Amino acid sequence: MTETDTASPAPQSHHGLAPFSQTTDRVFAVLVLLTAIGIVYLLGSVEPDHRGHGTHEQLGLDPCGWPQAYGKPCPTCGATTAATWLVHGRPDRALQMHAFGAMVAALGLLGTWHALWSLIRRDSFGLRLARLPLRRIAVLLPIVLLFSWAWNWWTWES
């Protein structure tokens, strides 16, 4: 028997996926954490547009062309504003502006918490993410996007 014959198989998550190497896992967690800190800083440095859309223009981005062309919002009009409201501590306004944008921002904050907690506890960030109900989230987000767009379409004021 060779040494490779007696080696135990690589550990797997409960989803059957091989985990990252410890170094890769830590680097990934740090990158998620640093990216989130940058995004939160950026969103915290602008004021949410009280119209419910247009906050992204304060970040140097062009106005959305869809409302200019059609007079109605695109599916993501207001998502940046919602994320900004969430960062400014107003989840009620965030949900009112764009539920999808608020949910994506909240998921980003949840991912940030998971990254930080994994680094503090020296747990696997990849396995921690694998424990999240990712399939449910993947089904729920497009539904919320459609309802958010419908709400924005109905309540749109340019």
**Which structural class best describes the helix and strand composition?**
mainly alpha
Q: Overall 3D geometry?
A: elongated
Distance between the termini: 74 Å
What kind of assembly state do the chains in view correspond to? Answer: single chain
* Tally of individual helices: 8
Order of helices and strands: HHHHHHHH
Mean pLDDT: 86
Helix content estimate: 55-70%
Low-confidence stretches: 7-17
Main sheet summary: none
Number of strands: 0
What does this 3D model show about the protein?
There is one protein chain. With 158 residues, this protein is an all-alpha fold. The protein is 63% helix and 0% strand. The protein contains eight helices and no strands. The chain has helices spanning 3-6, 22-44, 65-70, 79-87, 91-97, 99-121, 125-130, 134-155. Helix 2 crosses helix 6. The termini are far apart.
Give the helices and strands, then pairings.
Layout lengths: L2 H4 L15 H23 L20 H6 L8 H9 L3 H7 L1 H23 L3 H6 L3 H22 L3
Helix pairs in contact: 2-6, 4-5, 4-6, 5-6, 6-8
